[in-house]
Amino acid sequence: MKASNRAALMAAVAAAALAAVLAGAAAGPPPPTPAVVDRAALAAQAREALLQAWRGYERYAWGHDELKPVSRTAHDWHRESLLMTPVDALDTLLLLGLKDEAARAQKLILEKLSFDRDISVKNFEITIRILGGLLSAYQATGDARFLSLAEDLGTRLLPAFSSPTGMPYMYVNLKTGKTSGARSNPAEIGTLLLEFGTLSKLTGKPVFYDKAKKALTALYERRSPIGLVGEEIDVETGKWLSPASHVGGGIDSYYEYLLKCGRLFGDADCERMWAESLRALNAHLADEAPSGLWYGQVDMTTGKRTASEFGALHAFLPGVLVLGGDLGHGRRLQESCFAMWNLHGIEPEVLDYRTMRVVSPAYPLRPEIIESAFYLHRSTKDPRYLEMGRTFFEGIRAHCRTDAGDTVLKSVVTKEKGDLMPSYYLAETLKYFYLLFSEEPVDLDKVVFNTEAHPLKRTW
Ligand code: DMJ
Fold it and tell me: Is ligand 1 within 6 A of the CB of residue 314?
């Protein structure tokens, strides 16, 4: 552009800006500047919320899996407790400096936790919560008894991988090794390698890494020609049982682990699988709607749109996009998630983003939207994500609080309460709040959070 043209253009821009300012002045006062977020106060409140939640567990559910804060009773997943809440909460208690509470959790786990139980457990849930929790407890405390427990558990879970394809059965009996549940899904098959891989690195026994990697690869190899996976698959035949492709429950953390296993282990296969999957997600699931950018549902083979649903579980994706280097999509998708939250002052389990109507109204204290705000804030330092975090925190404290800890909502529309404090509320939701609000240093090149927010460190 010539200098004279550039000068004319700059004058026109300045005149337009001045006109806009004057027009604004004539129309009334400018919109209020959002109040500055007091990070220290919010971090202290997150710590206080953890303390209340933990005290509720100690008082009414000690030794059991989870607390039911409304009835002040306990919930166990199986006929014998696996101490789900103490194992899930321990590294959060340590991180937030609740030393006495952490010491009591540690003592309970080391004295009482045993896997010599005749119970059939969900391989995925036990891996992300208990195996992940024990491994991070070992890395945080250096107490070798946590690693022994982790190795015992990992060994008892190994029969799950005995299917003809190498993809794990959904259930395995901890005592007998009997498996069941050939009908599985990408999340349950592909969200195991961070934990099993770390177990191999820490014990020097490659079998755990190899089985979980084989399962992940077997699943990836069954992707469609356009690079997508479906919602359900038979682990014996390898045939897809549902072609619905999305990033919600049943698929979500499969993508998360492709990225994170590349980062934690430097595994080049995972890096390649993640890069190819990200391309397919952006090509086929990303959906520009009047309400913003979303990632919806398509048929895994044809790419044809089959639903415009997005919800609390899908909200992990902005964080994973940012961690994977796609800041542009991550930022825009988080804005959509924020709009979803603000519809009713707390997010629903599922929303139709074309009609903006709630499809499934529950809010089970999920962490994903907060986790994404944490990754976005660490990456951009943009105070917008602190403001989002404050909105999330205030919404939860306004609607989910009981005298004995926080509880799930049956409906974000009516705000009717349910009666459960899931263990991931202490492992994830409160941890990500604290990490978002505090200045706690976390080197995301060395620490990888598993899908239950247990930090795994590359110490090898
Ligand atoms: C957690 O157990 C994990 O984050 C999992 O990946 C999805 N479901 C819950 C939290 O919503």
Answer: no
Q: Count CA atoms within 13 Å of residue 376 on its CB side.
A: 32
- Report yes or no: 361 and 349 within 8 Å, Cβ to Cβ: yes
Question: Per the residue annotation, which of 101, 125, 256, 267 is the catalytic one?
Answer: 125
The Cα–Cα gap between 422 and 408 comes to: 8
Give per-residue pLDDT as tens, 293-306: 999 999 999 999 99
Pocket lining: 366 vs ligand 1, CB cutoff 6 Å: yes
In terms of Cα–Cα distance, which of 101, 132, 91 is closest to 264?
132
Residue with tokens 């983003």: 353
Which sign does the torsion angle of CA 165, 166, 171, 173 carry?
A: positive
Is 368 annotated in the active site? Answer: yes
Task: Write down the pTM of the prediction.
Answer: 0.92
User: How far is it, in rounded angstroms, from Cα 74 to Cα 61?
Assistant: 5
69-123 residue pLDDT tens: 999 999 999 999 999 999 999 999 999 999 999 999 999 999 999 999 999 999 9
- Give yes or no: 76 in active site: no
Answer yes or no: are the C-beta atoms of 380 and 316 closer than 8 Å.
Answer: no
Token reading at 108: 């309970």
Quote the DSSP letter at residue 9: H
Q: Is 125 a catalytic residue?
A: yes
